[in-house]
Amino acid sequence: MDYDQVVPYIPNLRRYARALVGDRHAADDLVQDTLERAVTKFHLWRPGNLRAWLFSIMHNVFVNQLRARRISPSAEMDENFAGATTPGWIIDVRDLERGLAKLPAEQREVVLMVSLEDLSYEEVSRALGVPIGTVMSRLSRGREKLRRHMDGESARPNLKAVP
Amino acid sequence: MNLDDDLLQAFVDGMLGESERASVEAALAHDADANRRVLRLVEQRRLLHERFDPVLLEPLPARLQMRRPRWIGFARAAGVLAVGVAIGLAAPRPWQAAPGTELVPSSLAAAALPARAARAHLVYAAEVRHPVEVDASQQEHLVGWLSKRLGTKLKVPVLSPEGFELLGGRLLPGPEGPVAQFMYQDGGGKRLTLYVSARARDEGQTAFRVSQEGAVSVFYWIDGNWGYALSGEIDRPALSRISTNVYRQLNP
């Protein structure tokens, strides 16, 4: 395989993995396993969309890691962000990461592939091996759930409606 | 027009064709509720990028640096390698440093300016849907943003007289920090990219140089603390002429 072809995608794979699993080391484990698998499977790649192919490999590795429980599906995100006096924007960041961690993995994957990595629905459909309709419904459910989580958590108690 | 969630989502994700996109835009003007839903989707995308884009610029840990086995470098230099035939043989974990060996910087970090520029060109000039991060319609924002990230006042050359219009630009990770890439396209869909990167410590000032990276020709020069590279799959005389033009606009 030609390393030069894959190298430019490594930063994207890392960004996606970080958002997907939260923890930096677990994310880089995922990237490393993906690159290793890509090297051994490179003969299976048909010239075309290398980026989508790499994401499909990462998906397979991720699913295997979930099965082997090397990644907790709702791994708590890095807690070192915030201390006792937390500025508002940090609350936002933690809400975002908590919200992501709470999504079912299959929704989190789709939300991140589309929103963060700009894969087309068709590329996601190929990477995950599911129909486009499934991609779109996971996407909208995942986004809605994430939004509700963030709205809910950042609302102050005294602003909540009293039943 | 029924602005249901699937349609709005596809609109925000850039999945609609030109005419469909225009009709959604028109319908949105009369639908405050749909507008709110679009804004929420856009806001969520923005938050995700704001949080995770910095990962793109983090230096790669050693275990993720895909190192080309040394013998390939020699073989290439000697011109004896049939590209792609034997590379797989050296595949097992080539990016892991053997104990005790000095870590060779990743090819991302160590590659010279023209090689990095050509790679970035190959990746993004081939993108059909997302060739740029910020398009030329927001040129002021684009230039302001990239100038801020690179910490210098960037100028975007005008290449219309050469038949190339600005498509937009994007921010990329580089060994010396953020890199800006501007993309241009001509009437026939041919693309040029201008890559602007902080000068690496071991790079001296250079006048115009040309380098051939596969199918991509690269003209590059280093001026002060900055390296510039213009890449394209076009013939060299044309690229040389355009590069001279770019240089003149950057150094009036």
- What is the total number of structural domains of chain B? 3
CATH-level-4 superfamily name of the largest domain in chain B: MucB/RseB, C-terminal domain
Global mean pLDDT of chain B = 78
Largest sheet of chain A: none
Q: Quickly give the CATH architecture of the largest domain in chain B.
A: 2-Layer Sandwich
Distance separating the two termini of chain A: 62 Å
Helical element count of chain B? 9
Please name the CATH architecture of chain A: Up-down Bundle
Shape of chain B: globular
Overall SS class of chain A: mainly alpha
Task: Catalogue the unreliable spans of chain B.
Answer: 68-110
By CATH, the superfamily of chain A comes out as: PhyR, sigma-like (SL) domain
Mean pLDDT of chain A: 79
What is the percent of helical residues of chain A?
55-70%
| Separation of the first and last Cα atoms of chain B | 52 Å
Explain how this protein is built.
The complex is a heterodimer of chains A (163) and B (252). Chain A is mainly alpha-helical and 163 residues long. Chain A has a single domain (3-157), classed as Up-down Bundle (Butyryl-CoA Dehydrogenase, subunit A, domain 3), CATH 1.20.140. Chain A has 8 helices and no strands. Residues 73-90 and 154-163 of chain A have low confidence and may be disordered. Chain B is α+β, with helices and mostly antiparallel strands. Chain B has 3 domains: 5-52, no CATH class; 62-105, no CATH class; 111-250, 2-Layer Sandwich (Phosphorylase Kinase, domain 1), CATH 3.30.200. Helix content of chain B is 38%, strand content 20%. A 7-stranded antiparallel β-sheet of chain B has the order 1-2-3-4-7-6-5, sandwiched between helices. Chain B starts with a helix and ends with a helix. Residues 68-110 of chain B have low confidence and may be disordered. The chains are: A mainly alpha (163), B alpha+beta (252). At the A-B interface, helix 1, helix 2, helix 3, helix 5 and helix 6 of A face helix 1, helix 3, helix 4 and helix 7 of B.
